[in-house]
Design brief:
- There is one protein chain.
- Helix content is about 35%, strand content about 15%.
- The termini are far apart.
Length: about 300
């Protein structure tokens, strides 16, 4: 059995920044540091930060007055931001800058009098944060089929944005349906699906056809990890998603000749290494990283947490 490693895989710049914000806040101010929602959607990351003193909450009324609070990488609504200010929290914003870009797009579109359609998954914290940039005027659609029943005020003043972690191909089908029904619809100047989501999906498209099994390292609530799993399944390969090597079942790989491994943008590389070690124990003879797009993106930390030179 041979193992192929997708490239790129694992952490993106937004995830690295968000985790570092929590870690540096803990180092500088000491625990507890409160975090609204999971900082990123990965069980290992969240459990590790919890052991260091991070306290993850769902609602702001769980946070004591005057505490340090971190907004997760997924972003928050204007209402949550204003509520945190009213309550006197000291806030570090770990929102991924590429999510912030979508928030700014929405605000600009609304200021210019456009009705906005968001393509995304209902209930996902990123979607809630983006829709929450306005007190109305944003419709959410999840499938191309929903375009047919979308009611809009003025088709000539319509715009769309998307969640950053969607399937590139599925999103394009929805955009095509929107453009077919509303030819004047305006889109973002640059695609909202982030570079890391695009690159990891492209890497799976390259890897999966060469494999008879694909394993995605990622947590079940991770949108971008689930899209990688779905993509490999659509390509026609047996695919499983695991939080860690402990989830790997030997019967999955019985008789397989080539196993592909990738990881969602919120999954640490250490989890991939542990999975590869387990595959070697189960008979993997070689491990080969595939070529892929190099990623050199880095995002600045908040000034108060940036390292001093």
């Amino acid at each position: 059995m041979d193992v192929l490693l997708a490239n790129p895989r694992g952490f993106c710049a937004g995830v690295e920044r968000a985790i570092e914000i929590v870690e540096r806040a803990l180092e500088k101010f000491g625990p507890p540091i409160y975090v609204r929602h999971e900082i990123v959607h990965n069980k290992t990351v969240v459990d590790t930060l919890r052991r260091k003193g991070a306290v993850f909450v769902h609602e702001l009324d769980e946070v004591p007055h005057g505490a340090w609070l971190v907004f997760s990488a997924h972003g928050v609504s204007k209402e949550v931001r204003a509520d945190a200010e009213r309550r006197g929290f000291k806030v570090f914003d770990a929102t991924c800058p590429l999510v912030t870009k979508v928030h700014l797009e929405v605000s600009k579109m609304l200021r210019e009098g456009y009705e906005v359609v968001m393509i995304g998954h209902r209930g996902h914290p990123e979607v809630e944060g983006t829709v929450g940039q306005a007190a109305g005027g944003i419709s959410l659609i999840e499938t191309a089929a929903q375009v047919a029943t979308l009611a809009v005020r003025d088709p000539s003043r319509l715009a769309y944005v998307t969640q950053t972690t969607l399937s590139v191909d599925d999103t394009q089908r929805i955009v095509d349906a929107l453009r077919a029904r509303f030819p004047q619809i305006r889109g973002p100047r640059r695609a909202d699906i982030c570079y890391a989501t695009q690159n990891r999906q492209d890497a799976v498209k390259l890897m999966a056809p060469q494999c008879d099994l694909v394993i995605v390292v990622g947590s079940s609530n991770s949108s971008n990890s689930n899209r990688l799993r779905e993509l490999a399944v659509q390509i026609g390969v047996d695919t499983y998603m695991v939080d860690s090597a402990a989830d790997l079942k030997p019967e999955w790989i019985a008789g397989k000749r080539r196993v592909g491994v990738t990881a969602g943008a919120s999954a640490p590389e250490a989890l991939v290494e542990q999975l590869v070690s387990r595959l070697k124990e189960l008979g993997a003879a070689s491990v080969r990283p595939l070529d892929g797009i190099p990623e050199r993106v880095a995002f600045r930390l908040p000034q108060e947490l940036a390292p001093k030179h």
